[in-house]
TrEMBL record:
Species classification: Bacteria, Pseudomonadati, Pseudomonadota, Alphaproteobacteria, Rhodobacterales
The keyword Signal belongs to this UniProt entry's keyword annotation: yes
Record keywords, A-Z: Signal
Protein name in UniProt: DUF2155 domain-containing protein
Gene source species: Lutimaribacter pacificus
A Pfam entry, by short name: DUF2155
InterPro entries: DUF2155
Signal peptide: 1-18
Amino acid sequence: MRGLLLAGLLLGASAGWAETVSRGNGAVLRVLDKLTGDLQDVELADGDAAPMGRLQVELAECRYPEGNPSGDAYAFVTVRDTTGEPVFSGWMIASSPALNALDHPRYDVWVIRCKTS
């Protein structure tokens, strides 16, 4: 199913479909500790990193539909474990967190929205 969704997105882009986007200056990310059930929202500026439990989360950039900052945000995120090795690096999409998700036994991380101020 994931392959079909990605193929559809690529096909749409190759057929001339493109949405105009704006770049935020940061993002709000949500972290779920699956063992304790704790949720934590963290605001990161573009280029910043923050520890979240046993992970280090880095935000490269966040984008959103032009003129709609509360719209479907997508952010380029790198997540590292305690050894410093990346366990995830890629675009996370607010409306489809399972499309490109962090696969970690203890934590879930997803983007909520971009920051614009």
